[in-house]
Design goal:
This protein has about 280 residues and is an alpha/beta fold. The chain is about 45% helix and about 15% strand. A hairpin with a 2-residue loop joins strand 1 and strand 2 (about 130-140). The termini are far apart.
């Protein structure tokens, strides 16, 4: 009785009804099963991204799974689960206007492509593995930004970029008439690489010297790989780096990670939707 009187007195001071207070107490003891499940999904997807996914990315991933959520709710769930994403800092590119005369910049930053296997982009980067630098070459299809070929080696030579190109060519069914764009690295202007382009009936395009914006989609891929996936201390061996990078490029990046270019859909799923629509029409 005394407890009830105390509650009524406190409620009167704060000008609220005692019934509202008791309803609030009941809600505190009620477990929102749906919210707990959604928070578990947010945690799972966040872990899948290696702590890199922000609220926008998680919203796209959840909607792809059929959850009608918005950024405000996802932010609240992330806060409840104490999830803080790894967001990269600002990135600055060099600028130049000198163009290689024998291999023009045919692409000219026209990054929006109508269909797969029209334009591929390639580039190289480096990662630390086994107490030394190793080198990664990748090829993406500009239509969906899907990784279609890649290779890793201890040497940054023409054989590395040629291997990545050959893998892409075979995996994509040996397409004809593809434009291949890259920066002006010596590997891409080598005789070995250019002979393979000629053999595959591909037209070569090169960025202006020192201008990374001309190959921005590749820059973004490597930036995502290094900020979202590669351990800060690098890998213990080339074999470990190969397995882990393969899991990112061919698994998480192609099939799971939402891409803004595809309106929040992963590259592989964006291509699958195109194939489905083409089959219907």
């Amino acid at each position: 009785m005394r407890e009830q009187e105390s509650v009524e007195m406190v409620c009167a001071v704060f000008e609220i009804s005692s019934s509202s207070y008791y309803e609030y107490c009941q809600r505190r003891h009620h477990i929102d099963v749906e919210r707990v499940h959604l928070r578990s999904e947010v945690n799972r997807l966040f872990t899948l991204s290696r702590n890199s996914a922000g609220s926008r990315t998680l919203v796209d991933m959840l909607r792809e799974l059929g959850y009608p959520v918005g950024r405000f709710k996802v932010r609240r769930l992330m806060k409840e689960a104490q999830l803080i994403s790894k967001q990269p800092g600002s990135h600055h590119y060099k600028h130049a206007t000198v163009e290689r005369p024998d291999i023009p910049n045919h692409l000219n930053r026209e990054f929006d492509v109508d269909a797969p296997n029209q334009v591929w982009c390639g580039d190289m980067t480096y990662v630390w593995a086994g107490q030394r630098w190793c080198y990664l070459a990748a090829v993406i299809d500009l239509f969906s930004r899907r990784v279609v070929g890649w290779a890793i080696s201890e040497k940054p030579d023409a054989a590395l970029v040629t291997k990545a190109l050959s893998i892409a060519y075979e995996q994509r069914g040996r397409p004809q008439g593809v434009m291949f764009h890259s920066d002006q690295g010596s590997q891409y202007s080598s005789r070995q690489f250019r002979q393979h382009l000629w053999r595959y009936r591909m037209m070569q395009s090169m960025s202006r010297r020192g201008n990374c914006w001309d190959n921005a989609p590749m820059e973004r891929l490597f930036r995502s790989l290094k900020t979202e996936w590669v351990p800060a201390t690098g890998y213990t061996s080339l074999a470990e780096a190969t397995r882990d990078i393969s899991a990112y490029l061919m698994g998480y990046y192609n099939w799971e990670r939402p891409h803004s270019h595809n309106n929040g859909i992963s590259p592989a799923k964006a291509e699958n939707r195109l194939n489905l629509l083409s089959g219907i029409s």
